[in-house]
Write a structure and sequence with these properties.
Helix content: 55-70%
Radius of gyration: 16 Å
Number of strands: 0
Structural class: mainly alpha
């Protein structure tokens, strides 16, 4: 999958309330974002819900984006933060309804159109840890550099390199 290139003025147009710009941002970023969120949640429905929350947050917070790096990395950080906040809420409630590893083979990857990417994700979900899945997904499917992945996942670059 090719690296996503977001026009430099797109985020400022989104921040200004331009709905067409937001649609374009979504069109450019939904596949890599969904793949990343799927690597975190290991569940298609949860990833879809998290993706909606992420885009809502991006729309509301677009004025906070600073032209310092890759807008997709900023969007993925928002998604990861929302995932972690949801996970903390669940952990604090101490409700364990099912084993988190249970049902991984039943995950539907139908929304990932690229057959090669879909097969890769299916294999990854069976053998890699959540952190390893995220690193591989961000690098191979979204085209991020190891330094960018380290920033998104809050890990040292050496850790990202060794786990990759």
């Amino acid at each position: 999958m090719a690296k996503v290139v977001i026009p430099s003025d797109l985020m400022s147009r989104v921040a200004g309330g331009d709905e067409k710009a937001f649609e374009e941002l979504y069109r450019l970023t939904y596949r890599p974002l969904f793949s990343f969120l799927l690597s975190l949640t290991a569940d298609q429905e949860s990833a879809s819900d998290l993706m909606q929350e992420t885009y809502l947050s991006v729309y509301v917070s677009a004025h906070k984006y600073r032209e310092q790096g890759n807008p997709l990395a900023w969007i993925m950080k928002i998604g990861k933060n929302l995932f972690l906040m949801g996970k903390r809420r669940k952990d604090n409630n101490l409700i364990f309804l099912e084993d988190p590893g249970e049902g991984r083979q039943d995950i539907a990857f139908d929304s990932i159109e690229d057959g090669e990417s879909r097969e890769l994700l299916q294999m990854l979900f069976e053998i890699l840890s959540q952190e390893e899945r995220s690193i591989v997904t961000l690098h191979d499917l979204s085209g991020f550099k190891h330094r960018e992945i380290a920033e998104i996942l809050w890990l040292p670059v050496g850790t990202v390199l060794s786990k990759y």
